Automatic annotation (TrEMBL):
This enzyme is involved in nucleotide metabolism: it produces dUMP, the immediate precursor of thymidine nucleotides and it decreases the intracellular concentration of dUTP so that uracil cannot be incorporated into DNA. It comes from Hymenobacter daecheongensis DSM 21074. This is Deoxyuridine 5'-triphosphate nucleotidohydrolase. Belongs to the dUTPase family. One of its GO terms (biological process) is dUTP catabolic process. It catalyses: dUTP + H2O = dUMP + diphosphate + H(+).
Length: 144
């Protein structure tokens, strides 16, 4: 798949770190470091502008290493970049640890995964088919 991209950062384009990785690591594009205090969030620019094909979305996901080592996640995970968005890709990081974390320019802050999606057309109905689960919600499966 080819995705047109404007790279207005000082860093290389997002890239896969291994041959079979699903996500491309994306880097922070910062004039100066950003300090995230515990439970603080910040919108981190990447300097990238994408043209995602219609019928696809770009998912923005946390990097497992940052999550495990430093408690850094993404508030709206996974974030979605729609095919009609042409603004700068920014990542909404959150510090879930009890220590400050400094985001450095060029640091790999998230991963990007391309996913196909369908467009829904609602079909009004009077009833729905019955299932074994029925209306059981949160925590209702696996416990008798």
């Amino acid at each position: 798949m080819h995705i047109p991209v404007l790279n207005r950062s000082r860093h290389p384009l997002p890239e896969y770190q291994t041959a079979h990785a699903a996500g491309l690591d994306v880097r922070a594009n910062l004039a100066e470091p950003v300090t995230l205090k515990p439970l603080q969030r910040a919108l981190i620019p990447t300097g990238l502008f994408l043209e995602i094909p219609v019928g696809y979305e770009m998912q923005v996901r946390p990097r497992s290493g940052l999550a495990y080592k430093h408690g850094i996640g993404i508030v709206n995970s996974p974030g979605t970049i729609d095919a009609d968005y042409r603004g700068e890709l920014k990542v909404l990081l959150v510090n879930l640890s009890d220590q400050e974390f400094v985001v450095q320019d060029g640091e790999r802050i998230a991963q990007l995964v391309v996913a196909r999606h369908e467009t829904v057309q609602w079909q009004p109905a009077e009833t729905l088919t019955e299932t074994q689960r029925g209306t059981g919600g949160y925590g209702s499966t696996g416990v008798q």
